[in-house]
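assembly run, all chains below
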Amino acid sequence: MTARDRVLDAYESLLIEVGPAAATLDAVSSSAGVSKGGLLYHFPSKEALVTGLLERLRRRGLEDAARMREAEDGAVATWLRGSAPPLESTSGLSRTYVAALRIAGGDEASELARAVFAEIDEGWFAALRDELGDPARARLVQLVGDGLYLAAVTGAEDAGPVPVDDLLAALAPVLGRSTPSSPDVSDRD
Amino acid sequence: MTARDRVLDAYESLLIEVGPAAATLDAVSSSAGVSKGGLLYHFPSKEALVTGLLERLRRRGLEDAARMREAEDGAVATWLRGSAPPLESTSGLSRTYVAALRIAGGDEASELARAVFAEIDEGWFAALRDELGDPARARLVQLVGDGLYLAAVTGAEDAGPVPVDDLLAALAPVLGRSTPSSPDVSDRD
DNA sequence: GTCTATAGATGGATAGAC
DNA sequence: GTCTATCCATCTATAGAC
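ok done. output:
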C-alpha cells in the first residue's frame, strides 16, 4: 500500500475515533507511520489532505452507486444495508463517508465537500429512482438510509445492529411487491 | 435577553455558519457583544460552553417531543416538518440541533453529546410510536426525519425546500388512513 | 459583571539535511 | 521521498484593574 493511502486511512480513523479537532497533522502522520514532513510531502497542506479525502469519497461513492445498480438483492436493500455501517470492520466507502461527515461544514474546503456530497447523493438517488420508478419513493428510501448515517454522527452506535430487515418490512407497502426475489434482472457479467 | 443566552445564540450561529474550528471564544464573544473575559465569566471554559449548548438542546428537545404529542396535524407531520429546518429563520430547536451536530464527535464533551442525542431521540421515537402504534413504523418515520437533518450536515440546502407533503404522500401506504384531518384533538390553550 | 493584557500550549507550515 | 528542527499564528485560559 502506498504511503499516500496509509495517510488517508489514518486520517479517516482519527476523524471517526477522536474527531476533527484531534486529527492534527502530528496525530495523522504518527498514526500513519510517517513523519510530519513526510506527510506534507504527499499533502502539501492540511487543506490538501482534506481534498484528498474528498476525492477518495467521490471515487468510492460513484463506484458504489454503480454497484448498487447491479446488486443481486436490488438497489434498495443494498442502499439500506450499506447505510448501516459497522465502522470497525469496514475499510471502504462507509468509513470514508462518515469521516467526511465529520469535517463537513468545518473548514474552507466545505464548498468542495458540499459539491462531492451532492454528486454522490445524486448518484445514489438515480440508482434508487431507476429501480423504484418514481422520484418520490426514491427520495423516501434515500432519506431512510441518510437517517442511518446520521446515527454515525450523533454517535448512537450502542443502539445495536440496525434492523434493516424490519425497515424493509415496514417499507413494504411503499415498495410494492418488488421483493428481493424478483427475477426480472438479467444476469450479466 | 440574558447575556448567557446571547452567548449561546452566537455560538450556535457560528457553529452553523463558519464551523466549529472558527467558533473560537474570541469569535463567539465578539459576535455576542461581550468581551472574552465576559464570556468566560458565564462559561468558565470552552467545555462549559459546549455543555451549555447541550443542556439547551436537551431542554428544547424534550419540550419539542411533548409538543409533537399535542400537535393538531399529528406527530408524524410535525416531526417531518420540523426536520426540514430553514436554519435562517428558526431560532429554536432545529438550530440548536444542527449546531450540536457540528460538534458531535469533536471534543471531550462528545460523551455528553451522545447521551443528549440519545435521550431526545428516544423522546421523539416514543411520540411517533404512540401515534403510529408500532415501533417499526415509528423508527421508519424517525429515520426519514433524521435523513432530512443529515442534509444540514452535508450542506445540501440548495436542494430547495424539502417536499414534506410529497414525503407524506409517499409514506401514506405505511401510515394507513390517519390523515392530518383527524379531529380527535381537543383544543386546549 | 465586564474589561484588558498576557501567559502557556499547540497547530500548521517552512527549511534544509540525508 | 522522508526526516528533524524551527518559525509563526492562534487558541484557551488566567490575572488583575475597573
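Chain B has nine helices and no strands.

Residues 24-26, 36-37, 40, 44-46 of chain B lie near DNA strand D (CB under 10 Å from a C1').

not gonna interpret more than that til we talk
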